């Protein structure tokens, strides 16, 4: 297999998901930093690679893949163990639904380009942006808390896609000071997951200790 290259930003939740899965599956890869804060994702070189201008992008097997869940789906097909999504239809559907609470309903409303638009184009100040962030995170977390296991993690014996989406989103919640007291099951699951070496090694503070 040719070199695997992850075009990555240390604080990107979507890139964080892919780093976790690459680590869990034991895939060796090279990280190519794309600094969103400096606008690297808008450069001609990066847009040639990923016309959407979003992180992450993964170069693998002579292809360039984009969108974190699509990348993870490719990795799940190519490197079967450990599986992120079960082959059982009902289990697969439930895991995807839980993961999409975060990947479709929380994260897209709170990523950098949306927050920048709220500030620059709609004139929201710091308080308004904070209220926006907290609204969409807490509403999504409430739905996920109701589905969270009483014991263990979403994947049971091993992390699944819902777990992989949860860890970066709770990192982001803490960064934006979202109160988490109403979500004890999610906090417990997150704490258990971050004890796993492969997941800990993908954390923003691990890949960008400075």
Features:
single chain, 210 residues, alpha+beta, Glutaredoxin, Glutathione S-transferase Yfyf (Class Pi), Chain A, domain 2, 2 domains, four-stranded mixed beta sheet, 10 helices, 4 strands, 51% helix, 8% strand, globular
Give structural notes:
The protein is α+β, with helices and mostly antiparallel strands. The chain has two domains: 5-82, 3-Layer(aba) Sandwich (Glutaredoxin), CATH 3.40.30; 89-199, Up-down Bundle (Glutathione S-transferase Yfyf (Class Pi), Chain A, domain 2). It is 51% helix and 8% strand. It has ten helices and four strands, in the order βαβαββαααααααα. The chain has a four-stranded mixed β-sheet with strand order 2-1-3-4, with helices on one face. It is globular, with a radius of gyration of 17 Å. The model has no long low-confidence stretch (mean pLDDT 95).
Q: What is the strand and helix layout of this fold?
A:
Elements: E1 5-8, H1 13-24, E2 30-33, H2 44-49, E3 57-60, E4 63-66, H3 68-78, H4 89-103, H5 112-120, H6 126-147, H7 161-175, H8 184-193, H9 197-200, H10 204-207
Parallel strand pairs: 1-2
Antiparallel strand pairs: 1-3, 3-4
Helix pairs in contact: 1-3, 1-7, 4-7, 7-8
Mean pLDDT: 95
CATH class of the largest domain: Mainly Alpha
CATH architecture grouping of the largest domain = Up-down Bundle
Please provide the count of β strands. Answer: 4
Strand order, main sheet: write it out: 2-1-3-4
* Poorly predicted tracts of residues: none
Output the CATH topology of the largest domain: Glutathione S-transferase Yfyf (Class Pi), Chain A, domain 2
The proportion of strand residues reads 5-15%
The percent range for helix content is 40-55%
> Number of helical segments?
10
Provide the gyration radius in Å: 17 Å
């Amino acid at each position: 297999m040719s070199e695997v290259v992850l075009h990555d930003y240390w604080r990107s939740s979507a890139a964080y998901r892919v780093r976790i899965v690459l680590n869990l599956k034991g895939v060796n890869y090279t990280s190519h930093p794309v600094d969103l804060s400096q606008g690297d994702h808008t450069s001609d070189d990066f847009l040639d690679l990923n016309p959407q201008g979003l992180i992450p992008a993964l170069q693998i097997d002579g292809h360039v893949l984009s969108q974190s869940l699509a990348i993870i789906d490719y990795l799940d097909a190519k490197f079967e163990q450990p599986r992120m999504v079960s082959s059982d239809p009902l289990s697969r559907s439930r895991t995807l639904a839980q993961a999409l609470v975060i990947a479709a309903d929380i994260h897209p409303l709170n990523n950098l380009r949306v927050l920048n638009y709220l500030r620059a184009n709609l004139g929201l100040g710091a308080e308004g942006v904070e209220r926006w962030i907290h609204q969409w995170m807490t509403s999504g977390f409430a739905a996920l808390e109701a589905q969270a296991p009483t014991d263990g993690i979403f994947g049971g014996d091993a992390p699944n896609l819902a777990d992989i989406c949860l860890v970066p989103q709770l990192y982001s919640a803490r960064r934006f000071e979202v109160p988490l007291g109403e979500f004890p099951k999610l906090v417990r699951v997150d704490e258990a997951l971050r004890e796993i070496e492969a997941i800990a090694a993908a954390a923003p503070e691990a890949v960008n200790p400075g």
